[in-house]
Amino acid sequence: MKQLCPCGSTLSYQNCCNQIHEDLSQAESAEQLMRARYSAFCLELIDFLYQTFHPQTRRFQKKAEIEIWAKENNWQELELIKSTNSTVEFKAYYIDMQGELHIHHEKSTFKQLNGVWYYYDGKMKA
Ligand SMILES: [Zn+2]
């Protein structure tokens, strides 16, 4: 049986975010990269998460912190609210270590560099 992609696309993982996880230049839009980043949290692909930070913001990131955030939370579902060319607003549902359900509501900004999409930064929404 094929594994469905964690991003909720209803495609198999092989035909969806896996292609971007293997080669991040495969993301053709900000939304595709956003989905692949969510899937990477589900699958604990820490290097991918780190690599998809835009070089200008990556230096503020710590792999160990990304790893804790990915592993301590149990990622439930991704809900896309609104996408534009360079932004994606989404809600990510997760259960924390205390068993409480949370909603991470963010508007992310993405930028291209040499034709490759990167996550630039995000603003939390109330
Ligand atoms: Zn996917």
UniProtKB/TrEMBL annotation:
Protein name per the record: Zinc chelation protein SecC
Source organism of the structure: Sphingobacterium zhuxiongii
Gene3D superfamilies: 3.10.450.50
SUPFAM superfamilies (UniProt xref): NTF2-like (SSF54427)
Domain of life: Bacteria
InterPro entries noted in UniProt: NTF2-like_dom_sf, SEC_C_motif, YchJ-like_M
Occurrences of domain YchJ-like middle NTF2-like (ranges): 29-122
